[in-house]
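Listing 4. Sequential folding, example run.
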Amino acid sequence: MGYTTINDPSAYFQTLLYTGNGGASRALTNTGNSDLQPDWLWIKKRNADRSHTLTDSSRGLTKYNEADDAGAEGTFTNKVLSVQSDGFTVGDNSSVNANNDTYVAWQWKANGGTTSSNTDGSITSTVQANTTAGFSIVTYTGNGTAGATFGHGLGVVPSWILVKGRDDVRNWAVYHHKNTDAPETEILNLNNTNATVDNANRWNDTAPTSTLITIKQSGEVNVSGEKYIAYCFAEKEGYSKFGIYKGNGNADGSFIYLGFKPSWVMIKRTDSTSSWHMWDNKREDYNGNPNDSALRADADGAENDTTDYSIDFLSNGFKLRNASDLDNNSSGTFIYMAFAESPFVSSEGVPTTAR
């Protein structure tokens, strides 16, 4: 077993829960072991229907998209006002700070908002990369050419890629390196429940490399003159993993080894219609198993709390504790995305403990 190079994942990813107060400016402080100044923020109201707010320090915090919606980029001056050395400040927009409503904020660190020009591909991109954590935020302008490429700045092959058109109504394009045996031929959309489809219109039937992502001339990834945002992730041992599993259809479900105790997990069934379900280690004042509380990336609905969504977070992975078609159908194929609370074994060889 290899040891991680990231002993404290909270330096690169954290979940924060808070209750809104309706104030025009409210500073929120992260609670992890390390300080975290977020570069990508994903905020969702928990107790009522409201679209997901996604913003980042590369575009500027007034710019946002919604995970559950194909709409063009919006501009709001009263959502996320700023980021601090260990948190962020929200305004009085009800998506992020309505009085007495509850929220979850998932936060990833890139490079503190500092970007650089990347000329590796046929399209020059602007990249903010954190190669230690395997995460980059990329902006680029399409050229409408099949087989176009842009640099992602990770230095290793990305495992999970999200691309969103900023100027028009465009689905979120998702690449996952375990989505079938040839993921570069497939289409998935974060904002809907569709099963995977074999189609070259996203990735031009070309797998990403350690420097480049290849795209076709479809609206979701490459219309000439249109602006795009991409979030790119590479697996890092003990910190992140993007894999696949088969369901077994009973409450003593499949165990998925991660090599770390998870803090955040998202699951999508790929062979059939299904939502993108998300769990974390903070909601419901979470202090044990099973974890029944799920949100859906493709829907604006409130948090679900039912045994249909039960999973266990363990010291070295997660285990399905439901017989639902949503996440554990006996003939189903599921992809997952996961980030760590703590590595199973630290760089000094110290094992983590179970809950």
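-- end of first protein; second protein begins --
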Amino acid sequence: MGSDKVTLRDVAAAAGVSPMTVSNALRGKPGVKSATRQKVLAAAKQLDYRINLTASALKSGRSNIIHIVINDFETPYFSKLAQAISTETTARGLIPFIEQTGYSTQNAERALASSPFSGQQFDGEILNANVMGSDIPLAELSHGRPFVMINACEQEPTVDAVDPPNEEGARLAVQHLIERGCRTIALVGAPYTPRAELANANGAFALRLRGASGALLDAGLPYDSARTFAAGGRDDGLETGHRIAHAIFDARDRGVAPIDGICCANDYAALNIMRGLADFGLRAPEDVRIIGFDGIAEGAYATPSLSTIAIDFDQLARFTLDALIRRIDETHHADGTDRRPASRAIVGHRLIARESTAAAPRREP
């Protein structure tokens, strides 16, 4: 059946639901069960039904285009984030328009304020927040448009936000190292910060440091500057691996307990720390156990495979689109105002234990 002959009612009949449910499902509106949405999408695909975006825009005042701004396309974390949000956007019958900032606050502000499409063609915008400084007034970035931030980490949200499980995940990571027998644990991510100051943490790495250090102190283990390293990328991860290797050798020479566990604030740094340790002949888990965060490092990325705290990226994408579509619907009310307070959701996570934190095998003599 050709798409020019198929109507919304045809899809509704095929899916066994009402035309209103079909409309809501295809436009990604909240309130439609996942199973129902999938049934509607399957019926629309089978019938080759297509939303007439031009007619829909003229009727509703919407373009169905969602503006997504991330840091880059190459880093595995942002690649996975972009894929999850793009997939969810498309599944809701919307069109993703993605651009990158190159980790520049100015580029992020420019993308929101002066894009040739901004405020004209986009129904709503999604911004990954970790490129923004903590002193940026986030609420002003939206310029009054429907807007959701990922990883905003504000204590009192001023914009709708969906955050990874920063503090909770890092706490679980350290607890896992402790359960595997580690007692001298290094923390990699944010620079050392006294616990009193971490009470006001408002960034992803700072929150992960708060969770990790809290788990150490709860277990009666030390949290100090000597075993806290600032690193989050390729080059500083490799350098930090070298520094930790030197610290391990120095402790052995002095007859004190060397670092035997490393909790990293992301997988990217963890993989490069493993490489840096290997440059000095140190291996995981034989010499030190290592765990990352984010869940982007599959088994093929490294040998040994990396244990990690995996973010539920699919849930992150669903929560983000739910929040954005609710905000879009609010702005299309008769009076044109949106009085809902800013909301925040924290997505789920799970521990994936792999070789890097396994029971250490016996070394060959």
